[in-house]
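hey m, so remember when u said the tokens were messed up on ur end? i reran from scratch. heres the input so u can diff it against urs
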Amino acid sequence: LIVASALMFGSLAWAGTPSAAAQAEIAHLLAYLRTSGCEFQRNGTWYSATDAAAHLEKKNQYLVKHSQIGSAEDFIEKAGSKSSMSGKPYLVRCQLHQSVPSAMWLRAELDRLRGSRGRPVSLKYSANH
């Protein structure tokens, strides 16, 4: 029972304390969005990439504070994919491309980032392509 409790509480602490690598990946995703020149739809309204990145940064800070972010995947799923108020998915629109779900757009960049460090890449969409 003690071991099970320690494992459970240990995993909860880990989920809320992103590693330095996870923090760097999240920071990269936010910077990528901020400088993308794309538009970001939230609850039916289009916002600039700068405004969108600021919004996601606030969500990330809140979720980290409440032990809900442990990885870049957690960030994408819990902060970057949909409105916590309405549940509506976020969209990203870059240049003349059709809008895509932000989760897919962010995941493609995360895959690209990891691939540039020698890991497999599975790009589905990029602001630059």
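this time it looks ok to me. Strands lie at 39-42, 45-48, 91-93, 100-101. if urs says something different then somethings off w ur setup not the seq
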